[in-house]
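Page header: ASSEMBLY MODEL / two components / 729 residues total.
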Amino acid sequence: MPNGQEREELLRKNGRSPLTKQTVSKAFLSILILLFTLMGSLAFGQVGVDSGMVAESNLIGLGGLGRNQNAFTLTSQNALRLYLALEGEVWSFSARGALSYSIDLADRGAEGPVSWIFSGLDSTGTVSGDLNSLSVSGNVDLSSEDGFNTLALRFGRFTMSDSGSAVFRQTLDGFSAYLIGNRVSVGMFAGYNGLLAKTSSQMVYTGTDQEIIADRNSFFAAPRFVTGAGMSIQSLGEQPVLENLGYSIDILYHDDLRRFINPQGLIEPGSTNPNDLAGGLYWSIYGINQLQYTVSSRSFIDITGTVQSGQTLVQRPGGVYELLPILAGSGNLNWTYFLPPFARVGVSGGFATGDGQYRSSYQEGAQFSEEQNLSSLYKPLTKPSLGVVFSPQPGNLAWIDGQISGRPFGSSLNGPLSRMQVTGRVSAFMRLRKGPISEAGAIVDTANPFVGAEVSGGVSSRILSDLGVGLNGGLFIPASFAGGVFEGTKPAVQYLLLGFVSLRF
Amino acid sequence: MITKFVIFSSLLILSVGMSLPAQQNQLLDEFILQEKAPFHISLYLVGVSSGIIREDQNHWDVVTNLGLRGFGDGPEDQIDNTSNQAHSLDPIPIRPITAGELGHALIQAFDIPAGFMYRLFPGNWYGAKEMEFRGFFPQTRRFNQALTPFEVVFAIQRAVNYRLARGFTPPDPVIGMTDVEFEQQQQAIRDRALGGLQQATQQTDAQRAGTGGVIEEEREVTID
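Prediction written out in full:
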């Protein structure tokens, strides 16, 4: 166990950026030169300009009822977002930043809303800020009628993802390049996670990553790197079925750059007495295949299959840590139907493999039996949105849900009601095999695979061009009955209510 | 591509032309062949299709009737206001119309409800944002970006449709209308369009002193 000084030193090393100051300075200088070039064009009226602010306020109530698990938390999340866009004929520049303030109001319930408003920046609140986007992008016309007709380039900080956002979708610092044609598009992206504020990154996989989150002195996210390449084909042929069949393939690779810059902060394979702050060297690679079939002009089916490999740290029963190969997978089927004029219904289902050998925890570095030499627990790089109240990682789960959304007064009324958007969703979750899921409180060895069911819905509207309001809610019924996955660890019902208002300046 | 553009533009213009005097067809035909939409023709089309002006008036009457600010220092800055042919393509216009100018003009001319920020600061900046929110442009256009004739006609058509869905009467009766009848119709339209501007105009006039006074004086003469 390290002493306080060693601990601080280790945390500092873990949070250190691998990029030198010169590299960062050069990148910012390049962006500034492009920015001034665009500003120069602005003087000649060739560049469109937009800027402004968005003030957002969310009030989130989360609670549980029954089985002696009654609880309630009320959180106020407020954000001020600033943006600037300069849009030229070929090149564009965009920047977005946000300053957020979050406070837990549950312990102020008796004092009332006035006290909440004037509670101010006291010690219970959390302030965070980050530059969400700072990028230069360009669409270069290749003027090729048969092949690729556009080269889309982007540099800086922006959101990157695989073709269908099945495995990864997050802001990174890097670049992307895509060749876009009438039938086929190919491209790649590469980005670095370690210059983001840690509150803006979802890339938390190991014990070392979690310590960065817990450390108040650390600002930057884990030094991880993601790259991906992909190809999309709009139509596979001219025959009746192939004509309506599209296909995309992506390969994603992700690694922990501490492998090169700070390997002493990681647990060595074979070690039995690791530093409690450290984690293993987790890296992963994904192959993603997606088929898109257009049944009719209103009906669409997507089928996605993903295979994951890589290495993850496990602890054998004897206490020896070991890097174990990963072989895991996930599948998803989604059907969408558009109901004229303004509604959409959808049914989707999916699964992600789990691993019964993880005995104590879903996390990397957990205890593992000696019987198996592969980890089959699937983990995407960023978490998909599987629910509102219950929003687990997909590993060791199967799920099915039905969704409906639309504008019920879109054609019959005018004004804000015509813009009112209503959504509804029903979901059910099952565990694939005995073993942990990502949610705390799940009992590893229960036989009943049912995890829970959720009903959620929401209504929102842009009342005016600069004013938006909305209300969302959800009920999750966990398997907290006798013999259930959450027996004794969750209430009979969990609920969430979210109200929000946004004003654009 | 150009052929498709011309065909689609022509279809749009046909629908906008329903609300315009028939003799303006030649002007429209010439208008859509321009690379960028001329400022004065665009404003003229807004004025005629909304009933703010008669066909023998010109774009500057739209500016003065609606009290639009930020459209130049006066008629002489744009084009010869004394000519009866001021809405034709000759002489060559000084500049194209921007997204903000067209948005601001459409909101005022067609009395389109706008957000808080536009009501507080009516002008080109928030005018363009209102257009984007309502989908009046076929693609995103910022306040300072010059528009093509197709984009101008597209936006006018959307504005006409918006008002038609709310009981707007197309200004066809302008043809053959007596001066008294025309002024009565104009007065009703202006009262509605200018109502929300009064307070903001007074505040702006106080700040702008000299130049604003000229416009205000012209507008009062026109209204009364």
